## 1
Amino acid sequence: MKLMSKVMDWISRSALSPKAKWTLAIVAFTESIIFPLPPDLLLIPMALTQRKKAFFFATICTAASVLGGIVGYYIGYNFMDYVGMPIVRFYNLSNEYVAIKDWYDTYNAWAVAAAGLTPVPYKLCTLSAGAFKVNFGIFLFASVVSRSMRFFAIAGLIYVFGERARYFLEKRFDLVLLAALVLGIAGFVVLKFL
């Protein structure tokens, strides 16, 4: 756990750095493929220290995460056995990898959207979407929507509530993501019937 502690210290220091937006982009990009920590851990302190830029930071986070997701999809599509599976095994996600196949078979884009919003590691979503040959357009659309909802929900809470949002996000983050997922599904249902 010493390594994880060092990584967390680095993230905290990075949030205050003049190059924080680049660090945020790198963390969001690599988390979609291999990095173990979600970009939220950097987005939250950055948005808290510069509330007026919260949505700008959410945009960086979303764009980099989706671009990383495209790379993850490509790796899964072309190199799952050689590159993707070692990543899955490294994070001990083999059972989840098998389970997500059923999600894709049953829910397709909804599975991508759910994985993009929930604590399911997004790297598992991107690699497996490629490996299971999920339609790339659907994958891309669901990734953009779900990652936007996740990061803009955080930015919105911080923009509106400031420091009070920190406690809520730290203690009830899963609830925030679940609410975003429910709202996203409701939005898709409304759009489908319009």
## 2
Amino acid sequence: MRRAVRRADLPAVAETRRVLRDNLREWGVSALVDTTELLATELLTNALQHTCGGAVLTATLSPEALRAGMAGQWLRIEVRDTVARLPRPRRREVDPAGDHGTSGRGLLLVEALADAWGVRPCPTGGKEVWFELRAHPN
């Protein structure tokens, strides 16, 4: 599954979530829908919020043969954008001033809920932020 979203087209984020949900159910991994939807939305909105261009979300379900030594299938979500600057997760420490803002925690969610995640520069410019979840059949 691959979806491109333009920065000015924020309603497309909801449509992308719907298509992602439908694909996960069709692939037989509906148990991953809630977590995948949350994390993919975080990465996609981060890309749209912090770049001037759009973003491309790609979802793939890899057979176990692609993950040597790891049984089962793996769901991989990649969000590619046009800015080369690599994101950093917000620090986990509590602000002594009591600032418990609601923004800036997307990568912490990804780090906490994904089985694996990372970021890499793209050879053609920009970057790709990805996460993986182990897929358990329904």
